[in-house]
Automatic annotation (TrEMBL):
Residues 69-168 form the BLOC-1-related complex subunit 6 C-terminal helix domain. It comes from the Eukaryota. This is Uncharacterized protein C17orf59 homolog. The lineage of its organism: Eukaryota, Metazoa, Chordata, Tunicata, Ascidiacea. It holds the Pfam family BORCS6. It comes from Phallusia mammillata. One of its GO terms (biological process) is lysosome localization. GO terms for cellular component: BORC complex.
Amino acid sequence: MSTVSSSSDYVGAPSTKLTHTLSDGMLSVEGENVSFVAEDFIEKIRIGNSNEMPNITHSPKNNSNVQLPVVDANVLDDLEKKSENLTNSVDAVLQEITKRLSKISAISVGNVQTCTDAVNDMSKQVEDAVHSMYSLIAHCEEMDKAMKPVTEIAAKIEKIKDVLSALEAHVQ
């Protein structure tokens, strides 16, 4: 028996959910996530460990017989070693990420400092250029004032030239 439920009109959409009921349990596929829920999980564990000695435990709370499977110590040791290896690997990855992020942060700080220095230097250069421009304008105004007598002298020279030309014309 298989059932399909979908909130989208097309297959393969991120919100598509497929559910299949199997004889051993229910298989669900939602996006990239796949899950399987086994029916009567404890019984399946008990059957899987039937070659070993079963451990029978009585629950004092509900006074019912619950048989729990015996857990193999080698499996627990192996699981502990693998989880320790995984923890070490995660720690190593986190340390590497921390190192790289520190390097990236240092580079970013260096870039910001370089940009700040460039802006400060440019600001100083602009201030110096503006100061030089105003100084040049002031010098030009002073030179213009200093040149006023030259124009008066040029006008007098022109009059003298005209008088000399008239005198020369009169003498000839």
